[in-house]
Every structure is written in C-alpha cells, then in structure tokens.
Design the sequence.
C-alpha cells in the first residue's frame, strides 16, 4: 500500500486542470485510468453454448451467473452458457476483444449467440432484462408487477455505486481513512439498507410475491452486506439491525441456483473459474 499523500485532505486545493497522477495509491489504482479503449490486442475465446459470458464472481458478475443458473433450473435449456474468467486485477477488461463486447471495460459482458447474428450485451441490468425477456421468466408481464420489478432493478444500478465506489472504497480500499468521506457514504448505505428493510417488511421479495431479476441483482450486493460479508463492515454498519433484509438475504442464499451461480468465475475456495458444463459446478459443490 502506498504512503498517504504529504498534504492533509483539508489542505488540498484542486489545480486548474486535473492531471493523471499514476502514483495516487489505493487498491485498484493500477487498473484505474482516465481514458477508455483497449490497452492491448486480445481476442476472446468462444465456446459451444448459445451464451458466452466474460466475467468474474464479484457481486456484479454473480447477478448474471445466478440468472443463468435460475433459468437452467427452471428448465430453460436454451440458457446454456460458457463462462470465461476475466481477471480485472490483471487488466483483462482492457483487451481488444473484451472492449468490443463492452466499451465500458467492466464485467459482466455477454454475447448472445443464439440467433442468426450475435448480440453484444453489457451492464448487468441490461443483461438481466434481455435474459428475462428472451425466456419469459423472472420478469412479470402484468404491467404493475413488471414496473415494480424494473424499479427495484434500476434502484440497484443507481444505488450500488454508493456502496461499492463510495463506502467500500473509502472504508476499505483508500490509502488512508477520511472521516468526511466514510461518514457521508456510511450514512447513505445505512439509508439504502433501511429502504430495503422497509420494503422487505411488507413484501416477501422486492417486486412482491414473485422472485424476480430484481432480487437477483440486489442480493449479491445487499444480501452480502446484510450478512457482514463485504468490506469487513458488518459491525461498523450494524447490519444485523436490518431484520427483514437479513430474512430475505438468508432465504435467497438457500436457493440451489444461487449457490451454483455465485461460484462461477471465482478462482479458489470452492469456486469454478470457468464454466462450460453443469458438471463443472457439481464438482465444486461436491468438494465444498
Ligand atoms: N454498472 C455495471 C458495473 C460493472 C462493474 O463495476 N464491474 C467492475 C467489477 S465489479 C469492473 O469490471 N471493474 C473493472 C474496472 O473498473 O476496470 C454493471 O452493473 O454491470
């Protein structure tokens, strides 16, 4: 970890024009860049299944592997997929083939090769909606229920950056602790948990009676948070206080497809770095 900058945060005066200081420290500083586009030429592998997923088992990655496993568990054989590992710590997201699928250089990225022309997809929310619509599953067609599902799905897309990029960054990854930043994002993350806790006090799932892609998107982030599994912040944020959120987090965690999906594209400890067949996950589950 790098040294804290010589100046105190309160002494910092922004220069007229920001410049890229590669030595600014913090975890992930090596992959953060102020420019987009590829850094190197590298084609992506293509397997035999209709869906080719390029991802990693972070919360954003888990949303999609959980959705694919849920679809397979529900009998949608067309949801078979190859999952390839993208190591974001090593900069795989900046390879030319990956950037062709996701110009934003972030996992998860998906190619739908089931039709006459391949379709590229990036942003986990877009991927979940595409899969749900394609298979007619986990996204209700009743207008009110569909609206509620999409509202919670997009709530996740807008909220998680405050949890990850805000709270997680300043509490766990920044090279030194800044009270102002940690305070601001702890407040917001607790407010978000209260939003979920109230909703899950009045409904079994986020969209109501049905388990939907909204639960699949929110659980990897806020289910893990509620169980004290992210940023070592369970006690700091008093996550056990959010009883309805904890009830829901436990309930989703028990789903077999969730237990399968969360392991995919994870290297080490019971993980499945690459998934090309259901048996790849079966083997990891047997060992666990
Ligand atoms: N809003 C995006 C977020 C994706 C995202 O932030 N992915 C992270 C990993 S969790 C990533 O690939 N980071 C690599 C980088 O920023 O270079 C989504 O939901 O798909």
Sequence:
């Amino acid at each position: 970890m790098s040294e804290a900058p010589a100046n105190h945060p309160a002494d910092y005066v922004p220069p007229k024009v920001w410049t890229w200081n590669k030595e600014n420290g913090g975890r992930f500083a090596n992959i953060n860049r102020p420019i987009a586009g590829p850094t190197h030429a590298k084609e992506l592998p293509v397997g035999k299944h209709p869906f080719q997923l390029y991802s990693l088992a972070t919360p954003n990655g888990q949303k999609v592997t959980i959705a694919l496993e849920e679809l397979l568990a529900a009998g949608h054989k067309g949801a078979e997929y190859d999952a390839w590992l993208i190591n974001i710590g090593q900069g795989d997201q900046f390879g030319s083939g990956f950037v062709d699928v996701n110009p934003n250089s972030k996992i998860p990225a998906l190619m739908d090769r089931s039709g006459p022309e391949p379709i590229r997809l990036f942003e986990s929310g877009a991927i979940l909606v595409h899969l749900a619509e394609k298979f007619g599953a986990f996204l209700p067609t009743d207008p009110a229920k569909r609206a509620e599902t999409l509202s919670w799905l997009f709530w996740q897309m807008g909220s998680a950056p405050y949890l990850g990029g805000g709270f997680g960054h300043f509490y766990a990854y920044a090279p030194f602790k800044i009270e102002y930043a940690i305070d601001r994002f702890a407040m917001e993350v607790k407010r978000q948990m209260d939003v979920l806790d109230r909703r899950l006090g009045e409904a079994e799932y986020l969209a109501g009676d049905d388990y939907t892609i909204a639960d699949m998107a929110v659980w990897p982030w806020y289910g893990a948070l509620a169980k004290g599994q992210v940023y070592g912040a369970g006690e700091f944020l008093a996550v056990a206080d959010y009883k309805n959120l904890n009830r829901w987090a436990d309930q989703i965690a028990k789903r077999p497809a969730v237990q399968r999906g969360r392991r995919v594209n994870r290297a080490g400890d019971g993980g499945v770095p690459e998934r090309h067949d259901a048996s790849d996950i079966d083997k990891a589950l047997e060992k666990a």
In short: The longest strand covers residues 51-55.
